[in-house]
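Entry for the shared binder. Reason: the reviewer on the internal report wants the predicted structure included alongside the sequence.
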Amino acid sequence: MTTPAGPLSRFDRWYRPLIATAALAVIAVVIRETAPVLDSILLALLLAVAVVPTFDVLRRRGISKGVAAALTTLMLALVLVVLLGSLGVAATRLIQVLPGYQDKAEALQQTLKDWMIARGIDPERVFSLDLVNPGRLLSLAGGFFRKPARC
């Protein structure tokens, strides 16, 4: 098959990358706009792929479909509870140790101020920007892990 020779044939090599780029841009916009729905679908697919082998093992051992589905669902719920529990324990532990890190950060800030003064730099001009405020940063991190107030 030969390509037609015409006025547009020499521009054909430029149109293909242009069309491919436009198609990728459209696909990216569609994915971004449908993200909430796609997230749910992809999570369901991930859980299905992760759980189907357990269901198949139970079915091969002669357990009925209903009981195998119930046991698989129970196992998935148990794994979810364990993961959420360990995440809660880790967040609680982080909130407990944050004050110790705040003390260390404030000591480091004082050391930095002393170093700056020794080199003729005015630390008040640097720290007046409130960029290096360990108390504010650590309270922000601690507030991230606290339960939100119910209205």
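Summary line for the report: Residues 12-62 form one domain.
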